[in-house]
Amino acid sequence: MGHLVNFGPSSGPVEPFAPSLLAAGSFSVTRPILFHYISDPERLLHCANLMFDALSRKVIRVESIADYSLADAARAHEDLEARRMTGSPVLRP
């Protein structure tokens, strides 16, 4: 039993496959698009507030944040493209 979540271009290309292969282990695949789930500004704000509250209470933990000076923005882009980090880099002035 497993669930593969494909996050579009950041997950890389997916080769065609027979969906019947998923039945071997009750597997599933999804490719969610944020705006299919949160289509209006009020819902987006509500969900964002829930997430930031969970972060502040450490219900959700961020393992590591890549921190770059603004002068190193090009290196941050290179590291993202090369998949040397997870999450979003923080650029500081």
Percent of residues in beta strands? 15-25%
Largest sheet: 2 strands, parallel
> How many helical stretches?
3
Order of helices and strands: EEHHEHE
Overall average residue pLDDT:
87
- How many β-strands, per DSSP? 4
Radius of gyration: 18 Å
Q: Can you tell me the overall shape?
A: extended
Q: State the helicity in percent bands.
A: 25-40%
Low-confidence stretches: none
Distance between the termini: 46 Å
* Helix and strand composition category: alpha/beta
Physical arrangement of strands within the biggest beta sheet: 1-2
What's the gist of this structure?
The chain has 93 residues and is an alpha/beta fold. Helix content is 31%, strand content 15%.
Task: Lay out the secondary structure.
Layout lengths: L1 E4 L21 E4 L3 H4 L3 H16 L10 E3 L3 H9 L8 E3 L1
Outline the structure in words.
The radius of gyration is 18 Å and the shape is extended. The strands form two sheets. A two-stranded parallel ribbon has the order 1-2. The protein starts with a strand and ends with a strand. The protein is an alpha/beta fold and 93 residues long. Helix content is 31%, strand content 15%. The longest helix is centred in the middle third of the chain and has 16 residues, at 41-56. The protein has three helices and four strands.
